[in-house]
């Protein structure tokens, strides 16, 4: 056998990914808001993230109920495949014409609620800052 030593060659992306594995997942933590009271702002951001995660869990549950419910309905009522409207089976119309608008409504509802949570957190934060300064938010 020759006396040469084998060298492992990896791409830069692989080296970065391997190095990243040993550090805590910083991307899962909310960013801190620099200011006079970093601890309170960080706690407020974490509380907002927790509320948004709960909202996301409710949205996923609703999404699962709609998708599995529709699948269950079609499995429980196979006669829907035999009923046609304008030459198209009713089961197909339910899947294509019924599920996508409902999914769109769920998505719009989720985005609006997440934005409302952010606005509410911003209003609370602004009111707390105004109370600290002794000023009123009203113009």
From TrEMBL:
The keyword Transmembrane helix applies. This is DUF485 domain-containing protein. Keywords: Membrane, Transmembrane, Transmembrane helix. The chain crosses the membrane at residues 60-80, 86-108.
